[in-house]
Design brief:
Pfam families: Ribonuc_L-PSP (PF01042). This protein is α+β, with helices and mostly antiparallel strands and about 140 residues long. It is built from 3 helices and 6 strands. It has a single domain, classed as RutC-like (60s Ribosomal Protein L30, Chain: A, 2-Layer Sandwich), CATH 3.30.1330.40.
Length: about 140
């Protein structure tokens, strides 16, 4: 079944079949939303920031440090959902400054050494807690 049909199926089932994914190995959600939702055979990971789970503070002020921490945090959320980086099919990256695109790619690429997922990247006016970067993803369950 193609990804489009899987998404349509997941959205159709979401009203009756969705499960929150929660792990203390990644930062808690900053508002009334889940770290991720499992629906059907898909995982929808909310936007992740470069916060250290134990402190709730940014790992660093620079985009490289925040990107690396985001990828670690996202990996823990995916693991808690029963997924992995290999099963990620789509990511969305939001940057405070698009000039950071190249630096982010260098770190991001280490987590997808094989076939990289589809991706969109946007420069945004602001991010929560004045973050430099936020990443969300969709993954399939293996």
């Amino acid at each position: 079944m193609c990804l489009f049909h899987e998404l349509v199926r997941a959205f159709a089932l979401a009203a009756v079949q969705k499960e929150a994914v929660v792990t203390n190995k990644a930062p808690a959600a900053l508002g009334p939303y889940s770290q991720a939702i499992k629906s059907g055979n898909l995982v929808f990971c909310s936007g992740v920031l470069g916060l250290v789970p134990e402190t709730g503070n940014f790992v660093s002020e620079d985009v490289e440090g925040q990107t690396e921490q985001i990828m670690k945090n996202m990996g823990e959320i995916l693991k808690a959902a029963g997924a992995s980086y290999e099963s990620v099919v789509k990511t969305t990256i939001m940057l405070a400054d698009l000039a950071d695109f190249k630096a982010v790619n260098k770190i991001y690429g280490k987590y997808f050494p094989g076939t990289a997922p589809a991706r969109s990247t946007y420069q945004v006016a602001a991010l929560p807690l004045n973050a430099r970067i936020e990443i969300e993803c969709i993954a399939t369950l293996e």
